[in-house]
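Methods — Computational structure assignment.
A single polypeptide chain was analysed. Its primary sequence is given first, followed by the predicted tertiary structure written as C-alpha cells.
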Amino acid sequence: MRALILAGLASVMAVVGCEKVSDPIAAPMTSGGTALPSAAGAVSRSREEWKKLLPAETFHVMFEAGTERPFNNAYHDNHAEGTYVSAATGAPLFSSKDKFDSGTGWPSFTKPITPEAVVLRPDPDGSGRGEILDASSNGHLGHLFDDGPAPLKKRYCMNSAAMKFIPAK
C-alpha cells in the first residue's frame, strides 16, 4: 500500500513540479483574500503559483473555495479500493474503506485517513457547517456535516477535483 501511495505521490508531483515542499513564498489565500495559517509541513505557495501548477477546475475548487457539480465529478461513484490524495501535493487524505454513498453526488467519507491530514474550520460563508482544508496545502476540499452513518455520524463531503485517486492494486 505504501508503495502505491508513493507511486501516486510521484505522479502528482510530476504534475505540480518537483520543487521543495518547504518553499515559503506566500501563505495560500482563501477566495476572500485572507491568508490562512500554514499547517506544519504545509506547502506554501502563492495563489499565482498554484494557478500555474494546477488544472483550472482544481485551482478553482481548492484556492477559490469552489464547488464542482454533483453527480458530474470523477469520484462520487468510485467504488475501487485505494487512497484519495491531495490534488495539490499528493498527501494522503482519505481511504476508500471510509467512503460511503451519501446520495449527494459528491464523494463522502466518515473520517480522514489521519486526523492530521485535514484542517477543520468554520465555513467563512456563515452557514455554520465546517469547511475542510487539505492540511498539506491549505486548499479547500469540501465540508463536514453531522449526518453521516453511525457510529461517527460524520460526512466529509469532498470535491473530486481537489483529490486524486491512487488504486490499491
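Note: Residues 1-38 have pLDDT under 50 and may be disordered.
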